[in-house]
């Protein structure tokens, strides 16, 4: 059998690089990586007919009576895993999940993103994404003992994380994932590595790879890397700011307009897109901030935004227009600042793109920018008094707004939408039953 050029490349590389196992990668609806290994002699068959597995073991994929699933590897995503031995090497490919009847699996997040990307392409748009993922290094997974006391951009002789970041960046680049920046973040032992922008699907694959590489390199050094949004009470939380832009099929940035009368160099298309993000932010917050702990980061006076506003110079807003190179077309983009790294990147990019497209389709009006940085310290109650809307305050509030959202049902499909509503309601209800140390410290001795 003669396959595509990508498939031929995979088969030739496997022979020349002594690859003995190929891991098939995919993620569940919650964004957790899943995989199983296939021997090279099975790949011809896998490309043609897929490899079967039990989908009932993967959260959000199927019911137990509909458990048979097939993973079809995408040859264009083939990469050797640099942290595995050079001899008897291991490679990976991302997969599309299908039913035995050849239908796309309703729980396949990657297919959801492909669908929205295709809708954008029908309108003549390509979405480019550049996320900034923050995380912490801890001594182990049993607590939050940090490796250093460094701060933003710090470089000290005791910064063990410099070596960790260096090895992580080198590993990512060996896998074909270019990195723009890496540095110490503002919290103790907190790091940030920013990936160079790419199209939405490629970037979602890159984010999944990035998170795994960060953890693999940390384990190699005998420490633990965590993407928990808010692991330390008195330290900043970890975000995943999502820079996004739309290009036309000729490679022009449709967000850029040097003649913008308001001086932001934003086109009407960009302004409608931002308006769409702002309008639907409360409804997609469950996707961008999907766990109970996410909302410990989204608090008044913290570094993450809670008020739904936009600006260029005000870094406390939900949406910022980066102004590092204001007159450069390629650099014109929108930065959404509430997402965190616990989010499923496929679903996150899908709902953001869908919200932006809705804003464009309906020509939504963009509110005035909020360049007043003083609102950063206002409580939710004070923001409400000023008529400034806010993001959901808790997971419980987020899941109910999500449950009622027609756009989220449309984008994600009934299967994923209802699964997330059920799972996240259960998470919130379980959390509500827990008695925290704060409550014991506050009330036990006086009540």
Characterization of this structure:
The chain is an alpha+beta fold. It folds into 2 domains: 18-105, Roll (Ubiquitin-like (UB roll)), CATH 3.10.20; 114-440, Creatine Kinase, Chain A, domain 2 (2-Layer Sandwich). The chain has 12 helices and 15 strands. It has helices at 5-16, 43-49, 109-122, 161-174, 200-220, 268-288, 294-297, 345-361, 380-385, 395-403, 406-432, 437-443; strands at 19-27, 33-38, 51-54, 68-73, 79-80, 89-98, 125-138, 179-184, 190-195, 198-199, 224-226, 240-248, 310-311, 319-320, 334-336. The strands form 2 sheets. Strands 7, 8, 9, 10, 11, 12, 13, 14 and 15 form a 9-stranded mixed sheet that branches. Strand 8 (179-184) and strand 9 (190-195) form a beta hairpin. Helix 3 runs parallel beside helix 8 (345-361). The radius of gyration is 22 Å and the shape is globular. 43% of the residues are buried.
